[in-house]
C-alpha cells in the first residue's frame, strides 16, 4: 500500500493486479492536489481541483446527490473505467469517503471477471441463424455448461473428485470414438462437390497474376556515371623507397635507416669519450 486510505485496501481485493496499479497511481497522485468549492446548488456541488501551489490546469469535479456520484472534466472514468485523481481528491478531502463505491467498479477490471458466464454467447434455447454444427457454436455451448459444472465441483472435495473421474471417463470415451470414426469413415462424393472442384480449377486457370509494373525512376544501369567514378584509383607509394603497398610510416627501409642512425650516434659518442 502507498497510502493509509481504506479505499486502497478495498481496491486491492477487487481489482486485478494491472488495474489496481493504475488505480493506486491515481490515488497516490491525488495527494498532490487540492480542491476548493466553486458553486453550491440543491442538486450538485462543483469543486475546482488543482495541484498544490498552482492555479492551472484547473479541473472541475461535480458531486451529485449524496456525494457518491461525481463527474470530472478530464473524463478518465468515461474513457478507461477507473476513477481519476481529481475525483479521488474530492472523495477523500470533501466527501470523506472511506470506501470505493460499487457503481465505480466495473466487472471487466475485477479478479472475478472470467468466473462469470459471458452474456454475449447465445444459449441453447436462443434461435440463432448460424448453423448448429459449426465448431464455434459447439464450443460456446459446451463452455456455458462447463461454467456451472465447475462452479458446483468447487464447492466440496467430494464433488470435485466425482467431477474429475467423470471428466476422465468422458475424455477416454471421446478418444475411442475418434479412433472408431477414423477407421470406418467413408467420404461420399456427390455432384455438388464435383461441380465445386471444377469451378475452383477453372477459376484458378483463368485468373492469373497481374502484370508486373516497373518501379518509378531511372534504372540504375542506364545512369550516366561521373568521370570520377570510372577513374582507376592509384595505389599508394612510399616516399622513401618508392615502392607500392606501404607508406613511409611503416616502411622497412626507414626502420633500418633509423637503426643505422642510432648506431652512428652511439659510435660518435663513444669516440668523443675516448678522446676526452
Automatic annotation (TrEMBL):
The keyword Metal-binding applies. It comes from the Eukaryota. Keywords: Metal-binding, Nucleus, Zinc, Zinc-finger. GO terms for molecular function: nucleic acid binding; zinc ion binding. GO terms for biological process: regulation of DNA-templated transcription. One of its GO terms (cellular component) is nucleus. SMART domains: ZnF_PMZ. Residues 215-225 have a biased composition (Basic residues). This is Protein FAR1-RELATED SEQUENCE. It comes from Juglans regia.
Amino acid at each position: 500500500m502507498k497510502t493509509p486510505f481504506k479505499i486502497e485496501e478495498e481496491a486491492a481485493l477487487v481489482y486485478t493486479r494491472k488495474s489496481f496499479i493504475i488505480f493506486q497511481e491515481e490515488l497516490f497522485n491525488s495527494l498532490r492536489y487540492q480542491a476548493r468549492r466553486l458553486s453550491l446548488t440543491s442538486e450538485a456541488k462543483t469543486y475546482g481541483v488543482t495541484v498544490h501551489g498552482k492555479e492551472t490546469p484547473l479541473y472541475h469535479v461535480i458531486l451529485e446527490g449524496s456525494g457518491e456520484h461525481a463527474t470530472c472534466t478530464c473524463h478518465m472514468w468515461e474513457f478507461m473505467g477507473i476513477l481519476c485523481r481529481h475525483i479521488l481528491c474530492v472523495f477523500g478531502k470533501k466527501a470523506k469517503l472511506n470506501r470505493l463505491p460499487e457503481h465505480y467498479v466495473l466487472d471487466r477490471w475485477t479478479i472475478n471477471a472470467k468466473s462469470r458466464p459471458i452474456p454475449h454467447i447465445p444459449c441453447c434455447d436462443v434461435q440463432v441463424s448460424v448453423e448448429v454444427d459449426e465448431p464455434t457454436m459447439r464450443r460456446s455451448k459446451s463452455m456455458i455448461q462447463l461454467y456451472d459444472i465447475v462452479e458446483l465441483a468447487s464447492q466440496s472435495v467430494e464433488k470435485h473428485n466425482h467431477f474429475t473421474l467423470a471428466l476422465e471417463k468422458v475424455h477416454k470415451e471421446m478418444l475411442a470414438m475418434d479412433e472408431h470414426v477414423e477407421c470406418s469413415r467413408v467420404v461420399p462424393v456427390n455432384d455438388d462437390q464435383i461441380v465445386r472442384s471444377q469451378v475452383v480449377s477453372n477459376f484458378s486457370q483463368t485468373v492469373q497474376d497481374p502484370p508486373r509494373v516497373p518501379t518509378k525512376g531511372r534504372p540504375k544501369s542506364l545512369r550516366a556515371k561521373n568521370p570520377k567514378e570510372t577513374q582507376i584509383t592509384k595505389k599508394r607509394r612510399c616516399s622513401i623507397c618508392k615502392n607500392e603497398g606501404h607508406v613511409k610510416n611503416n616502411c622497412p627501409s626507414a626502420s633500418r635507416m633509423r637503426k643505422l642512425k642510432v648506431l652512428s650516434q652511439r659510435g660518435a659518442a663513444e669516440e668523443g669519450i675516448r678522446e676526452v
